[in-house]
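Notes from hallway chat w/ T.B., transcribed later so I don't forget. T.B. wanted the structure written out for a chain they're using in a teaching module, and asked if we could keep both sequence and C-alpha cells in one place. Agreed to drop them here.
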Amino acid sequence: MATGIRIGIVGFGNIGRAVEMAVAQNPDMTVAGIFTRRGPGGVVPRYDTSKVYDIAAAEAFRDEIDVAVLCGGSATDLPEQGPFFAAIFNTVDSFDTHARIPEYYASVDRAAKQAGTTCVISTGWDPGLFSLMRVMGESVLPEGTSYTFWGPGLSQGHSDAIRRIAGVIDARQYTIPIEGAVDRVRSGEQPSFTAREKHFRDCYVVAADGADQDAIRREITEMPHYFDEYDTKVTFISRDEMKEKHAVMPHGGFVIRTGNDDAGNKSVSEFSLKLESNPGFTASILVAYARAAYRLSREGRTGAKTVFDIAPAYLSMKGREELIRDQL
C-alpha cells in the first residue's frame, strides 16, 4: 500500500520522467500512478513500483492521489489540462507562458474553488524561484531596477512550442544572454533594454521529409510570446545530429536587482542557477511544491496558488522548530 503523500504524474515526457526520480528522493512521498496519452504499453517507468495508466483513467484515482503533478507543455497541454485536473485533484504545474499566466490562473482558480481543490500553478525556476527573487529584490531595494537573464541553455517550453508546429519532428531551442547587457547590469548600471537587446534565441529543428522549411522558420520567428520579440536563428538538422549533439538539457540564468538606498549607496543583488539538467531541477521544484499543495489542502486553503502565496516552510520535509533551529 502506498505511504506518504501520494503523487500522480500526468504526462511522461522529460518532466514526467524527472518527477518520478525526484519523488524517489523524498521519503515522505510515493508515486501512486503515471498517466499518459501514449497508453500503458508505450511507457517504461524507471522504477518497478511505478504503475502506468491511460490518462483517460485518471479520474478513477480521485481518492488514491493526494497531488497530481501536471507535466504537459504550456503551449497546448496545460491550458486544457490545468482546469480539467483541478476539478479532480490537488495539482502542481509549471505553466510558463508569462504573458498568459493571469488568464491561466483565473481558469484554474475557478475550477479549483468549485471542486474544493488546491492547485499551485506556474512553479519551476522561471516562473517560480526567479519570480520570488524579483519580488524580494523589489521589496528590499524599492528604488532600483530588476533584470532577468536566461541561459545559456535549453528552454523546454520554447522547444515544446516549436515541436507543435506542423512538419516539425523534433526541436531544441537555446536561450543565450547577450553578454554586453549582462556586464552593464552587473556593474550597477540601470539601463533600459528591449527583449531583443537582452537575449538571442537559437533553434535547431528536425523537419519531416517534404516539409516547407521556409514556412516552419517563419512560423517560429513570428510566434507571439515566444520568438517574435527576439533575434532568432533557425537551423535545420538531421535526426542523428539532434541525437548526437542535443541530447542533454542544460540551462540556468540569473535575476539581478540594482538599486540605491536613501543615502545613495549602490547595491547589486544576484540569484543565479547553473543546471546540468533543466527538467531534473524543474521536477525537483514541482515535487517540493506538491508537498506544499498537500499541506495547504489539509488546511482547507483551496483555489489556485502561486509561489507568492506559499511560505518556504511548506516546501520542506523538516518541521518548523527544526527549520528555526538549523536554518534561521
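Follow-up for T.B.: The longest strand covers residues 168-177. Might be a good example for the class.
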